[in-house]
Amino acid sequence: MQWLIASLVYVGIAILLVAGVGQGWMDTTALAWWLGFVALVLLAGYIALRSGWTERFRDPSVSVWQLSMGVLAVTWGYLICGPMRTSALFPLMVIFAFGAFALRWRQIAFLTALALACLVAAIVIRSRYPQWLPVQGEITPLRLDINNLLMLAVVLPALAVIAARLSGLRQKLRDQRQALAHALSEVQRLATTDELTGIANRRSMQVLVDRSVALSSRQLTPFSVAILDIDHFKAVNDELGHAAGDEALRAFARLAGATLRNTDTLGRWGGEEFLLVLPGGPGGVGAVLERIREAVRNDCLDARPLTFSAGLAHHRPGESADALLARADLALYEAKGAGRNRDVAAD
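The structure corresponding to this sequence follows.
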């Protein structure tokens, strides 16, 4: 695509230079040499690209070489265009637009230095060695303006095509960033959310307990935990099927979550067990569990009431998360041993 756009720009410029022969400001011999150079560059580039020979390079499109040849062609045109030499520099805009599209900053810096060095050399040649240049005639101001307009008519469409390609790339990058952000969000959600119930999973709850322990140990925010275990849940799966059991877990998470305070967090701890983290003193924990018990008793399963046992533990400053959870787990077993459908506070 770069080669094709460059070829069309060269063709447009060549047409203007051929017209310049008839207008008297372009020398035929100088134009022939310039056309030969351009044709050789385009042919060599086409063969190198289409044959696959350039695939061995880090940049298979050999952009630096193509654009460097463009800089030399522009400089050569500046030398032979006489009164039209200023407009001969217009194609540099296309060259550097390609550079922004295809090159790294070091390559763009090299291309900039090359263009400036070539232009300085051309100015030196024009001022000190005019005998090296072909005899060039004059051009009327109106014809100069028309030729400048025609040169822009050649250059600007190429710039528009490059700009459109850059715009397409930017849109593609935006779409990719959005897709990546969505994927990262989904990964984060899957990493912290229980897939069945939609509430926090064990990993997320462990992080919350660890953070709460750190705050409580510094006597900033006391908290309690409660491990809830649905009573006789194996019988639910055996009698009603695993689909009904899964629906019961989802309903339990939904109904229990609706009764909590804004500061409380409920997560699935594993199987039919749930972990409840409640900031504050231990005084209100029993009331929270009773609200959950009333909410889920008759609304989780149509065939039978649903109850749960719970083990509570209030964090002691300096106590580790594992020790706290172990005390709550021991209290849960005591609640089960005492007949289930009840709460037991550790110690």
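The CA atoms of residues 79 and 122 lie 6 Å apart.
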